[in-house]
Amino acid sequence: MKIIEENYDKISLILLDIMMPGQSGYSVLEEVKNSEKFKHILVVLFTVKSFSEDVQKGKKLGADAYITKPFSGKELLKRIKDILGNGK
């Protein structure tokens, strides 16, 4: 969160793994989406967790997209372009 705090005005999108050491991606997502200062930031969750309850939890917390591993760089780039509105 420290990096987000220090650079929030320069960040448009965060690629966020759900399973991280220390703080879960869900927790970071919740902090970002519940903050007036950060809520403009789009969040893409990625994880090996593909169960529907995991996807639903991410959506409920405000994730803008959810990508399950493994994925190709091409697929990730397409999803990011779609989210940013440049998916032509």
Task: Walk me through what this model shows.
- InterPro entries: CheY-like_superfamily (IPR011006), Sig_transdc_resp-reg_receiver (IPR001789).
- Keywords: Phosphoprotein.
- One of its GO terms (molecular function) is phosphorelay sensor kinase activity.
- By secondary structure, this protein is α/β, with parallel strands linked by helices.
- It has a single domain, classed as Rossmann fold (3-Layer(aba) Sandwich).
- 41% of the residues lie in helices and 17% in strands.
- It has helices spanning 2-7, 25-33, 52-60, 73-84; strands at residues 13-17, 42-47, 65-68.
- A 3-stranded parallel sheet has the order 1-2-3, sandwiched between helices.
- β2, α3 (52-60) and β3 (65-68) form a beta-alpha-beta unit.
What's this entry about, in short?
This is Response regulatory domain-containing protein. The protein has 88 residues and is an alpha/beta fold. The chain contains four helices and three strands; from the N terminus they run H-E-H-E-H-E-H.
What's the end-to-end separation, in Å? 32 Å
Helix content: 40-55%
Which CATH-level-2 architecture? 3-Layer(aba) Sandwich
Derived structural class: alpha/beta
**Count of helical stretches:** 4
Number of structural domains: 1
Sheet with the most strands: spatial strand order: 1-2-3
Large-scale geometry: globular
CATH third-tier fold name: Rossmann fold
What oligomeric state best describes the polypeptide chains here? Answer: single chain
Detail the poorly predicted runs: none
Mean pLDDT: 87
Biggest beta-sheet profile? 3 strands, parallel
Query: How are helices and strands ordered from N to C?
Result: HEHEHEH
